[in-house]
Amino acid sequence: MNKQHHQGERKFIQSVRTRAGRAGGPLRVGIGDDAAVLRPKGKSEIVVTTDFSLENTHFRRDWHPAKAAGHRCLARGLSDLAAMGARPMGVFLSLALPVGTMDKAPGRKWVDNFLEGVLELAKASGVKLGGGDTATAPGKEILADIVLLGSVPRGKALLRSGAKVGDGIYVTGTLGAAAVELEVLSDDPKKFTRAKVTDKDGHPHLFPKPRLNVGRALIRRAGTSKINSAIDLSDGLSTDLAHLCAESGVAAIIDAKLIPLGGTLLHALHGGEDYELLFTGKKVPKQIAGVKVTRIGKIQKAKKNQPPVVIRMPDGSETPLLARGWEHQI
Ligand SMILES: [Mg+2]
């Protein structure tokens, strides 16, 4: 971490080192040296993902409890690792803070709690904070960038590009609940900053739970049950399934009646931020790593001038499912 810091920031950096704890596991050298050292297991590959969390784009200080903002920031990256079947090895967090943030209690407290949200989820996910940076933000908004490294047995990473014609399409958990909670939040923005909420209370928008154990189990059982492709549901079923189809060069049909709903059908299709996994394959059990798995459709051949994703509605009609944001209709 660089040296041009005000006293508040300097103290913060010292406290980060203490709170991050000692290096261990795949993180051989953590905070304190010029760089971190990671040790992957013998025959493994390194998986890397980075995510910006920008104030007023990804979180709002007046809407999101600081802990939830930190949790969400890390959850996005962990969910990407889960989708690849990777085991997280190290987290790296860079923060740009507006001038004076660490000099006064409300700003300092917010950053402390944000970090707490990151560290609690990191601990629960078996990964350590291995380093990062702080700087003064150019404007009035907090900017956070998270880098996550993970490992996966060589050649085993689950890819978006592996779906095969005839594969079943499966999702974990339920879809749409995060979008429902976001609506509740936008109707009453102070609701959750007023009340003390924690990740134990099952808030799907504030404290999403990345499916790391499912991702790793998918890799382990790939030999027998044939898991061919995977993606995490960060942008919404309609968008993410379209991404998977595009990368695999296939089309998909899903059945509205089969989708495990955590809200309305529209929430489930377009809501996003559920951080469940979607994967395709054959002979898939109804539960993986203790998480419910539901078959919602199948992969079919891509045809010219045909929509890549079709949805069979409850009345039996079939209609193209466009990869659209939440505010649009199906
Ligand atoms: Mg993703």
Automatic annotation (TrEMBL):
Binding site for Mg(2+) 2: D51, D80
Residue ranges of every copy of the PurM-like C-terminal domain listed in the record: 164-280
Keywords: ATP-binding, Kinase, Magnesium, Metal-binding, Nucleotide-binding, Thiamine biosynthesis, Transferase
EC number, as in UniProt: 2.7.4.16
Pathway: Cofactor biosynthesis; thiamine diphosphate biosynthesis; thiamine diphosphate from thiamine phosphate: step 1/1
SUPFAM superfamilies documented for this protein: PurM C-terminal domain-like, PurM N-terminal domain-like
Gene Ontology terms describing biological process: thiamine biosynthetic process; thiamine diphosphate biosynthetic process
Binding-site list for substrate: H58, E273, W326
Lineage top rank: taxon: Bacteria
EC primary class: transferase
Residues annotated to bind ATP: G132, D133, R160, S234
GO molecular function annotation: ATP binding; magnesium ion binding; thiamine-phosphate kinase activity
Binding, Mg(2+) 4: D34, T49, D80
Record keyword Nucleotide-binding present: yes
Pfam family, one: AIRS_C
Binding of Mg(2+) 3, residues: D34, D80, D232
Catalytic function, reaction form: thiamine phosphate + ATP = thiamine diphosphate + ADP
CDD domains xref list: ThiL
Similarity field: Belongs to the thiamine-monophosphate kinase family.
PANTHER family hit by this protein: THIAMINE-MONOPHOSPHATE KINASE
Additional remarks: Reaction mechanism of ThiL seems to utilize a direct, inline transfer of the gamma-phosphate of ATP to TMP rather than a phosphorylated enzyme intermediate.
Reported function: Catalyzes the ATP-dependent phosphorylation of thiamine-monophosphate (TMP) to form thiamine-pyrophosphate (TPP), the active form of vitamin B1.
Protein name, UniProt field: Thiamine-monophosphate kinase
Organism of this sequence: Terriglobus saanensis (strain ATCC BAA-1853 / DSM 23119 / SP1PR4)
Gene, per the UniProt record: thiL
